[in-house]
Specification:
The protein is built from 5 helices and 6 strands, in the order βαβαββββααα. The protein is α/β, with parallel strands linked by helices and 203 residues long. It has a 3-stranded parallel β-sheet, sandwiched between helices. A 3-stranded antiparallel β-sheet has the order 4-5-6, with no helix packed on it. Strand 4 and strand 5 (94-101) form a beta hairpin. The protein is elongated.
Length: 203
Amino acid sequence: TRIHTCLYLLAPTGHSLKSLDLFTMKAIHQKVNLIPVIAKSDTVTKPELAAYKAIIARELSDNDIELYTLHGDDKISFPLAVIDSKDEIVVGGERVRVRQYPWGIDEVENEEHSDFIKLRSLLLRTHPERLRVRTHRVLYERYRKVQLQKMGFEDNDPESEPASLKEIYEQKRRQHLAELQQREEEMRQRCVGKVKRKEAELK
């Protein structure tokens, strides 16, 4: 089972990203489709939220953190900002989820108040297959390549015939066995040398 999306929730501080957030996103951005989301965005004003989004976008770019690419969807830009609530009231004859305050309400599914609709549509309607495909074709293959390189497997020369994984494995196995035999022979020679030196001392 592979994880196709990471919704990274950010506190609505209005300031720069925390070092821990940058460190964490830097660690995972090449392993999963990363989507930053500002949680509880109703705790800041609209101008503050717009400024905070710009700060986050700039800092992510400056730190070379790779986000999920929307392929020309100009209606959505990251980070998204959402609110949530279990409270429901009737508005215009329909039941809607809202956060209620003494001065008014914020509707969870009102795009003037929250990006919740955009996020839900992205995850469940417009992009789920793209997320899965990118996970398999880009992120997993990148991870697989790095792990194989750590094990000593390297890509072939582009002009040479590609070798199968089985062939590469057998080649590495033979190389490993040869190294083991060499070490065993070195250990045997050391033991023989010690025995000979001991026998010379006893004569």
